[in-house]
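User: quick one
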Amino acid sequence: MFGFFRRRKSKDDLKERLKLVLSYDRARLPPGKVEQLKRELLAVVEKYFPGDGDDLDVRFEQHGDRMTLIADLPRPTPR
Amino acid sequence: MNAKAIVVTSGKGGVGKTTATANVGAALAKLGERVAVIDTDVGLRNLDVVMGLEGRVVFDLIDVFEGRCKLRQALIRDKRVDTLHLIAASQTKDKSSLSEARMHETVRALLEDEGFDRVLIDSPAGIETGFQTAAAAAQGALVVVNPEVSSVRDADRIIGLLEAREITEVRLIINRLRPAMVKRGDMLEVSDVLDILGVKLIGIVPEDERVLISTNVGSPTALDETGPKFTAGSAFRDIARRIGGEDVAYPDLDGSKGVFAGLRRMFGGR
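Assistant: Done. Structure below.
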């Protein structure tokens, strides 16, 4: 019974992993390709905004029954 | 379910497709429907032995496809339920005569000429020709899934392929659920699987040694109405009633609602 509180439920890990794997399966895109896409996007961003492409985040998200490719490109606030 | 021709499929092997086909078929027939079950796992046929009909196979599906026998000659009547019939798969490995058109014609003839109410098509594992042929004539699908990683992943793939074939009535059978593990948080619960796969549920079947024992003797466990109230057999009978259109409540298998304390003990929970 104490283990219940001490330990994260293994099924929660599985659920998270499955959701990620399935999002790539459904997009017919292996995770390695997303990494490649990210690098190429980074190169393009770097070309237009030299020096601040570091916090680029590219991932798939499931919204209802559609997959969305999210590219998060934070820009420094102009002063 | 409105679908008269229903494919039983899973993607992954070994999750209980053949067991589900035999049990749901037997339970549906017991309810009074005229049911034909077809094994399409050519080269690895097993539905005949699970149903205890291996000694009666003279002609098989490939014989029908290749015109070596009439459809009626390949229909094997069940020993226990006389409204249940089997068409066995061929045990030879030649799959060249598997065709979607022949499958269509066979299913059409069963429903229209032979007067069957329902045709259950046991699909082979995988997503290749065998699966595609099995799914060709189906208007509905029972996707069998175990609450574990590879089965859920493969089920998702299969659901995508069924949707691509415009099979609209896709229903999920969660098979081999272990209520005690679910209770500990070590097995996906029903709501997790539904959340991930996004299809409608039609049955929850607990892990139950009666399934293996009944298979040993070639008699589907759904036909055994003795024993405890909630078993794999009772779960398969409930699925048959839901297919028939009845609204059957789900038993609280993992004890999450705090009732059915005896039930929890029965399934190894505490």
